[in-house]
Task: inverse folding
């Protein structure tokens, strides 16, 4: 099998048979002509299948070492399809510092349909077992977590899932397939917000699932086509273009991330720095065993823990833009307590470690010295 970078550029893609075009065309069509009723070339209606999307699905699946890939119109669309594998009465055990949008969908949408969610601290994977009962259907893991960069042991979760015949879902958005391949560690489904690192250019919203399980794939594809959260050909083309440089971008995200993490740690006004690459990160050993490198996502607090100071700093950066999202070529800064985690009561939020002065960085691929100089002038 070809190595990662070669697959990122070529997997799922053949020169267009009619013209030889090296890039997969944007098949801007809603339907396909049939020779006789039901007799077609595998494509009938574009909600279900589109050749530009199929090329992208094959490429992402290849990068996750997966048999199957499916794309959705957003990461949330992919999550919605995965939860629809459950039936009323089923229970899901999810990590307690979950992406805010996932938490919102689970509690505000799917609880109304009779699905029960347990939010569990998974620092110790064995704690999951305490919440398993006859109704448990799924374990939902995200690692590294947002915004505190905690690491969950995927292999240990997979052993628990296997022993209890549960579906293990891993949201691999933060690591990207370049740094971590959960299916190889025993996960049943890997999920991506393609919006982030895979597309990488902050110009597309998209999601994806990958699996080696034929039955799960068949069900997810049925749900995708039935419920309709499938992406169009233009966005599929942009993501197909973006993913070609994933390996090159990730190397720079990782090296810039390391430099920024080390700089922040040495700064007298900075308190804690959360980044799994530090040898004294509480789960560094697990990170090292399941990730190839440590990525460009970092969060940190300021000494004195002042929200005003954090606000001032977030507004003072010039290269880092104050914005939601992550994983693009441009560096972003965010203030979780007032942005992504604003709906969580202060006490609960602080208990989970999201302090008033916590700032989150998505370190981009600009020049390292410019990023550090920007943080230096902003911290003051
Ligand atoms: C952004 C994100 C999502 C949701 O993806 P969208 O493409 O925004 O719908 C899910 N999980 C994680 C970890 C994310 O960062």
Result:
């Amino acid at each position: 099998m070809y190595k990662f970078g070669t697959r990122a550029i070529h997997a799922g893609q053949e020169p267009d048979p009619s013209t030889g075009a090296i890039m997969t065309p944007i098949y801007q069509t809603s339907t396909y002509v049939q020779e006789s009723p039901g007799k077609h070339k595998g494509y009938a209606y574009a909600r279900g299948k589109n050749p530009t999307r199929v090329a992208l699905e094959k490429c992402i699946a290849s990068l996750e070492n997966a048999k199957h890939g499916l794309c959705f119109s957003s990461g949330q669309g992919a999550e919605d399809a995965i939860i629809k594998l459950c039936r009323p009465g089923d229970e899901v055990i999810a990590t307690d510092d979950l992406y805010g949008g996932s938490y919102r969908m689970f509690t505000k949408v799917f609880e109304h349909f009779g699905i029960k969610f347990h939010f569990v601290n998974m620092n110790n994977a064995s704690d999951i077992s305490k919440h398993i009962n006859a109704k448990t259907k799924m374990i939902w893991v995200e690692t590294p977590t947002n915004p505190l960069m905690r690491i969950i042991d995927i292999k240990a979760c997979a052993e628990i899932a296997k022993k209890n015949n549960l579906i293990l879902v891993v949201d691999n958005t933060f690591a990207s397939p370049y740094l971590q391949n959960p299916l190889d560690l025993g996960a049943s489904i890997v999920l991506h917000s393609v919006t982030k690192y895979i597309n990488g250019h902050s110009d597309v919203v998209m999601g994806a699932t990958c699996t080696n399980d034929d039955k799960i794939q068949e069900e997810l594809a049925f749900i995708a086509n039935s419920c309709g959260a499938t992406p169009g050909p233009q966005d599929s083309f942009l993501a197909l273009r973006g993913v070609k440089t994933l390996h090159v971008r990730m190397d720079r995200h990782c090296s810039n991330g390391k430099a920024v993490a080390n700089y922040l740690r040495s700064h007298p006004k900075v308190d804690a720095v959360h980044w799994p690459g530090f040898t004294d990160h509480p789960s560094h050993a697990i990170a090292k065993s399941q990730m190839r490198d440590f990525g460009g996502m970092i969060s940190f607090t300021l000494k004195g823990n002042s929200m005003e100071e954090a606000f001032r700093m977030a507004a003072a950066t010039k290269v880092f833009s104050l914005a939601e999202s992550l994983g693009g070529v441009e560096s972003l800064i965010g203030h979780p307590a007032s942005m992504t985690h604003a709906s969580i009561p202060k006490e609960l939020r602080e208990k989970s470690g999201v302090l008033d002065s916590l700032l989150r960085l998505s370190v981009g691929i600009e020049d390292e010295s410019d990023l550090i100089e920007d943080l230096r002038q902003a911290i003051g």
The two ends are 50 Å apart (CA to CA).
